[in-house]
C-alpha cells in the first residue's frame, strides 16, 4: 500500500517541505488588523441592524478574500481550506435573481461562482445529489447555486402530488354516497409524495452534513412572497426567467400545492433562512447579510488547533489512536493472519476461468441499466491488477471504466474527500455508455494509507467510516450493485512478489521505494484493514475477503463472488 498511491498532501508539501521554524503557522485572520477582524470577520448576528450598505459591502469583500486565503499554500495557516455553497430556492418572482445580482456587484465577481438549474426528473439509478457534484465549489470559493438538488426534488414531488390529486378525485367520485367515516379513513395514511419527500430530505440532510464536515459549508436560502405579489409580478411587463421546478405559477391549485410542499420541506429541515421577497431591495440586502454571516462562520470554524496540525505530520498511528479520540482498534481476525497457500493446477485454472468469465459477462449484460461498482483494496502486490484484468477480459472495453486511484491532484484536495470518487461514478447524464466502474484502490484510502502514514488527522479518518457507509448506502438505495474486495497475502509471499517484480523488466514499474519501506509498517496496515472491515461491512455493501497466496485461486474467488452477488441482485 504505497504512500505515493494515495498521498493526501499537496505537491509543494511533498517536494519543498521546510522546517517548521521557517514556516510559522498562523491563522488567516493574522493577515488583517485587529479592527478589521473585529468588524468584518467575526460573526455578529446583530450586524444587519447596524451595518449600512457601504460597510456591508466592505465586509463582504474582506470575508471573501479571507475565506479564499484558507486554501493558500504559502504561508501555511492553521485554517483548513474551506468553501461556502449557497443554495437558493423558493417561490418564483421572489427576488432571487435580484439578490444574487446585488451580491455579485458587492463582492469580487471573479471569486463568486454562480450555477443554476431549473429542476429535472431525478435519474433512476443514481442518488439525487449525484447530478450536481461537479458544481461543488473549491475550498476557498463562494458559490451560489440556483435550483440545485432541491429543484429536482421539488420537480418530482410536485408531479407526484399532481398524480395523487388526480387519483384522489377519481376515487372520491366513485365513493359518493358511502359512509363519511369510511371516506375519511381512506385519507389518513400518509400520501406517496409525502413519504418520498420525507425520505429524500433525510438523505439530503445527511449528505449536506458530510459536506460541511469536509469543509464545504452550506447556506440555504428560501425566497418567498405571498400569492397576490406573485401574480402581480407574473403579469407585469418585465421578462421572466425560466421558471424553477417547471410548474405553472399562475395556476391557483398548483400554487396551493407548492406552498403545502414547501411548508413540509421547511418544517422538516430547520436550517433554511427564509427571505421575504415582497420588497426585492430589502430581500437582496437581507440575502447579502446572510452570506456575510455564513462566510464569517465558515472562516471561524475552519481554524484548527496547532495540536491537530502537528498530528498531520506525525506518521505514528499510535498517536492518532490516543485516548483523546477514544478509538478502539478491533482484534485481528484470523482471516487476515492465516492466509491459504494452495497451488492450483494451471490447466484446471484456465478451464474454470473461462466458464466463470462467460457467466459473469452474461450477468453484467443482463442487469439492464443498473450500475455496478467494483472496489478493490489489499496489501501491495496482493493481485488487484491481475484480478481486474481477468474480470474485464470477457467484456467490451466500452462497457466499463477502470480507475487507478493514486495521490489526489491539487484541485481534488480543494473539494470534499469523497468528491473525486463521486465524479467517477457511472453517470446517466453523460454520453458514455459504460455503467460499470472498477476502482483499483478506492475511497478507503482515508482509513488505510492516510491513517497509517499520518496524512489525515484522527478526527478525519475516524469520521470517514460512517461517511463511507452512508455513501455506499446511497448507491445501493438506487439499485447500484457495490462489490468490495480485500485481497490479502502474507508478508513472505509479498517479498517474493516484490523480488519477482524487481527481476522482471516489464513489471519493474510496479515496484517503488515506498513499497519496500511500507513493509516495515505491515502490522499497521493489517490493523487498519481489520478496523476497516469491521466498521464498513454493511448489508448495503459487504466485503469479500480473498486471503490466499495463490494468484489463480484469488482471481477465481473474485469471479465467484461477483457472480453470486449479481445473481442475488438480479
What report would you give on this structure?
The protein has helices at 11-15, 34-41, 53-69, 96-106, 148-174, 180-186, 192-213, 227-235, 252-268, 280-302, 306-311, 317-320, 334-337, 346-365, 384-392, 410-413, 419-422, 449-452, 458-477, 491-503, 513-518, 522-536, 551-569, and strands spanning 83-90, 112-116, 142-146, 216-224, 272-276, 372-378, 400-404, 436-440, 481-488, 543-547. The strands form two sheets. A five-stranded parallel sheet has the order 2-3-1-4-5, sandwiched between helices. It has 570 residues and is an alpha/beta fold. Mean pLDDT is 87; it is low at 9-20, 180-189 and 313-324. The protein has 23 helices and ten strands. The chain is globular and about 80 Å long. Helix 5 runs antiparallel to helix 7, helix 7 (192-213) packs antiparallel against helix 19 and helix 15 (384-392) packs across helix 23 (551-569).
* Structural shape: globular
The proportion of strand residues reads 5-15%
Q: Unreliable runs, pLDDT <50, ≥5 residues?
A: 9-20, 180-189, 313-324
User: What's the number of extended β-strand segments?
Assistant: 10
Oligomer: single chain
Q: What does the main sheet amount to?
A: 5 strands, parallel
Distance between the termini: 34 Å
The whole-angstrom Rg is 27 Å
Helix and strand content put the structural class at alpha/beta
Secondary-structure topology with pairs:
Elements: H1 11-15, H2 34-41, H3 53-69, E1 83-90, H4 96-106, E2 112-116, E3 142-146, H5 148-174, H6 180-186, H7 192-213, E4 216-224, H8 227-235, H9 252-268, E5 272-276, H10 280-302, H11 306-311, H12 317-320, H13 334-337, H14 346-365, E6 372-378, H15 384-392, E7 400-404, H16 410-413, H17 419-422, E8 436-440, H18 449-452, H19 458-477, E9 481-488, H20 491-503, H21 513-518, H22 522-536, E10 543-547, H23 551-569
Parallel strand pairs: 1-3, 1-4, 2-3, 4-5, 6-8, 6-9, 7-8, 9-10
Helix pairs in contact: 2-3, 3-10, 4-10, 5-7, 5-9, 7-9, 7-19, 14-23, 15-23
Amino acid at each position: 500500500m504505497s504512500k505515493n498511491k494515495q498521498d493526501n498532501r499537496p505537491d509543494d508539501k511533498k517536494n519543498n517541505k521546510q522546517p517548521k521554524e521557517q514556516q510559522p503557522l498562523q491563522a488567516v485572520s493574522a493577515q488583517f488588523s485587529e479592527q478589521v477582524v473585529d468588524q468584518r470577520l467575526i460573526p455578529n448576528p446583530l450586524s444587519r441592524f447596524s451595518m449600512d450598505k457601504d460597510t456591508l459591502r466592505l465586509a463582504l469583500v474582506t470575508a471573501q478574500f479571507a475565506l479564499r486565503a484558507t486554501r493558500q499554500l504559502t504561508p501555511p495557516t492553521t485554517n483548513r481550506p474551506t468553501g461556502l455553497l449557497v443554495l437558493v430556492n423558493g417561490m418564483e418572482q421572489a427576488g432571487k435573481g435580484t439578490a444574487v445580482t446585488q451580491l455579485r456587484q458587492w463582492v469580487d465577481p471573479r471569486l463568486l461562482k454562480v450555477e443554476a438549474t431549473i429542476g429535472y426528473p431525478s435519474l433512476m439509478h443514481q442518488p439525487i445529489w449525484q447530478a450536481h457534484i461537479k458544481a461543488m465549489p473549491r475550498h476557498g470559493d463562494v458559490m451560489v447555486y440556483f435550483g440545485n438538488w432541491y429543484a429536482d426534488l421539488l420537480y418530482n414531488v410536485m408531479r407526484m402530488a399532481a398524480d395523487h390529486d388526480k387519483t384522489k378525485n377519481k376515487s372520491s367520485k366513485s365513493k359518493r354516497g358511502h359512509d363519511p367515516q369510511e371516506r375519511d379513513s381512506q385519507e389518513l395514511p400518509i400520501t406517496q409524495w409525502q413519504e418520498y419527500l420525507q425520505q429524500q430530505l433525510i438523505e439530503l440532510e445527511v449528505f449536506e452534513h458530510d459536506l460541511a464536515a469536509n469543509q464545504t459549508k452550506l447556506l440555504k436560502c428560501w425566497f418567498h412572497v405571498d400569492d397576490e405579489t406573485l401574480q402581480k409580478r407574473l403579469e407585469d411587463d418585465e421578462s421572466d426567467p425560466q421558471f424553477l421546478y417547471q410548474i405553472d405559477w399562475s395556476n391557483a391549485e398548483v400554487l396551493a400545492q407548492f406552498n403545502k410542499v414547501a411548508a413540509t420541506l421547511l418544517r422538516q429541515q430547520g436550517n433554511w433562512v427564509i427571505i421575504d421577497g415582497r420588497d426585492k431591495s430589502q430581500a437582496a440586502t437581507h440575502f447579502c447579510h446572510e452570506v456575510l454571516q455564513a462566510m464569517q462562520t465558515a472562516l471561524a470554524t475552519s481554524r484548527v488547533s496547532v495540536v491537530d496540525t502537528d498530528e498531520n505530520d506525525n506518521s505514528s498511528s499510535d498517536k492518532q489512536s490516543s485516548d483523546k479520540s477514544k478509538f478502539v482498534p478491533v482484534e485481528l481476525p484470523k482471516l487476515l493472519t492465516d492466509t491459504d497457500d494452495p497451488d492450483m493446477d494451471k490447466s484446471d485454472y484456465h478451464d474454470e476461468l473461462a466458464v466463470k468469465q462467460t457467466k459473469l459477462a452474461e450477468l453484467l449484460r443482463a442487469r439492464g441499466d443498473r450500475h455496478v461498482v467494483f472496489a478493490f483494496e489489499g496489501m501491495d502486490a496482493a493481485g488487484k491488477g491481475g484480478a481486474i484484468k481477468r474480470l474485464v477480459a470477457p467484456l467490451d472495453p466500452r462497457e466499463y471504466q477502470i480507475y487507478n486511484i493514486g495521490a489526489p491532484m491539487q484541485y481534488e484536495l480543494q473539494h470534499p474527500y469523497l468528491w473525486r470518487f463521486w465524479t467517477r461514478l457511472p453517470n446517466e447524464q453523460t454520453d458514455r455508455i459504460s455503467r460499470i466502474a472498477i476502482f483499483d484502490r478506492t475511497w478507503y484510502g482515508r482509513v488505510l494509507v492516510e491513517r497509517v502514514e499520518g496524512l489525515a488527522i484522527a478526527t478525519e479518518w475516524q469520521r470517514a467510516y460512517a461517511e463511507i457507509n452512508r455513501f455506499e448506502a446511497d448507491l445501493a438505495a438506487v439499485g447500484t450493485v457495490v462489490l468490495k474486495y480485500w485481497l490479502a497475502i502474507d508478508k513472505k509471499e509479498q517479498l517474493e512478489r516484490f523480488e519477482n517484480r524487481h527481476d522482471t523488466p516489464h513489471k519493474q514499474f510496479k515496484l517503488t521505494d515506498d513499497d519496500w519501506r511500507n513493509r516495515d509498517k505491515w502490522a499497521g496496515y493489517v490493523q487498519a484493514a481489520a478496523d476497516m472491515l469491521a466498521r464498513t461491512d454493511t448489508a448495503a455493501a459487504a466485503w469479500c475477503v480473498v486471503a490466499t497466496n495463490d494468484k489463480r485461486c484469488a482471481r477465481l474467488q473474485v469471479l465467484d463472488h461477483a457472480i453470486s452477488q449479481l445473481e442475488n441482485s438480479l
